[in-house]
Design goal:
Length: 381
């Protein structure tokens, strides 16, 4: 029993240490993003090209463009690339070209060449047409305030950046979305200390969300553009890391007050969408994947069950483990509150973590079985 007690003490100590680190990391990241995020103030300045790839987006491209043509920033234009859609995407986008011929430009995308990710190739084509000093990449399903472009210019200039991205407001409408999509916040809640990015030039400290990325055009082209990450699925994160590895200044901030997005329309759509990125994000390293799965299960999912099991055997250890569980819940509470989402889903922290484990294993299976993921009519492996 002495050996069992020693193992138990070690387990509880690791659990408390990890949960404490994650809580502190989350708080510091939230404060850091608030400190370095400037409110949109630029009205005119460098030429901005807003680049929107669109594939079968007839349901949302109109709203996106309606937002983008009504910006407070003056010196900008918009380029939309219809990526071989078979719905009314091109027709809807062309309507804006007719109405705003000097501002909106619609391009017919070329067939996808071998070795390229669909979105990367669409973006690379758009970059070829863009004439702006600053390029803003945004998805067709995003909704923009009138100061969205101004926010990019303000924060690139005030922070002296080459690459900028951030968290938009995630519009989660169903229970399934609320149990899956918040896992995208784990990067800044449990993994990456954002404040170190300015101090240490480690690419792994840089991240991005493809819903909104802004870059200085010269720096971006010099770094190789989307061609540098042309075959990966999580091109946004790899692009941020690549820019940082080339010596450029990158930053991840908070853009929830200026851009929102409903990425997925339910549980299964959310699972497919996020799963296709998980394995790719860790470089398709199966040992790392299973190591992370084991860690998540041992120190984030199982502790809540161990608390009840230990109450009669060792009440003190059960109490310490309960502290660890409370720290995890508090971390999720802070993250969700900061994202303007209901913080009460934090009490489902074990469910959120377990959902991440299931998606990781699902991603591994789909990738290694050769099936891949079907996404917008294309196979992603």
């Amino acid at each position: 029993m002495v050996f069992v007690d020693k193992i138990l003490e070690l387990y509880v100590a690791i659990a408390i240490l990890c949960s404490s680190y994650f809580l502190v990391l989350c708080i510091l990241n939230v404060l850091w993003m608030k400190r370095h995020t400037f409110k949109a103030s630029a009205k005119n300045g460098p030429r901005v090209s807003v680049l929107v790839p669109a594939r079968n987006e007839e349901g949302c491209i109109g709203t996106c463009l309606e937002n983008l043509v009504n910006q407070t920033y003056e010196n900008y234009d918009i380029f939309i690339l219809d990526d071989n859609s078979w719905d009314r995407t091109y027709e809807i986008a062309s309507g804006f070209t007719e109405k705003y011929p000097d501002k909106v430009h619609v391009i017919k995308g070329k067939p996808l060449p071998q070795g390229w990710n669909g979105k990367c190739y669409a973006m690379e084509q758009l970059v070829g047409f863009a004439d702006g000093e600053i390029l803003v990449f945004t998805d067709a399903d995003t909704v923009h305030s009138q100061e969205s472009v101004s926010w990019a210019v303000t924060n690139i200039l005030n922070n002296d950046l080459d690459f900028l991205s951030g968290y938009v407001y995630e519009d989660l409408q169903t229970l399934g979305e609320k149990l899956v999509v918040p896992n995208i916040f784990i990067l800044t809640g449990f993994v990456i200390p954002l404040w170190l990015n300015k101090l240490i030039k480690l690419p792994v400290l840089s991240t991005a969300v493809g819903q909104y990325i802004a870059v200085k055009a010269d720096s971006f082209r010099a770094a190789g553009g989307y061609g540098a990450v042309k075959s990966v699925t999580t091109e946004d994160v790899y692009l941020a890391r690549h820019m940082r590895s080339m010596g450029y200044k990158t930053l991840f901030l908070d853009i929830k007050d200026y851009v929102s997005c409903r990425m997925y329309d339910g549980y299964f759509s959310s699972v497919r969408g996020i799963s296709k990125n998980i394995f790719d994000f860790i470089g398709k390293n199966k040992f790392l994947l299973f190591g992370l799965v084991l860690f998540i299960m041992l120190f984030t999912v199982l502790p809540i069950f161990f608390v009840f099991g230990l109450m009669s055997y060792n009440p003190l250890m059960a109490f310490y483990l309960l502290i660890s569980v409370c720290f995890y819940i508090l971390t999720w509470f802070i993250m969700l509150k900061d994202r303007n989402l209901s913080p009460f889903y934090a009490f489902l922290a074990p469910v959120l973590f377990f959902q991440l484990v299931l998606m990781a294993l699902y991603a591994f299976y789909k990738t290694n079985s050769g099936q891949g993921f079907e996404w917008k009519g294309r196979k992603v492996r």
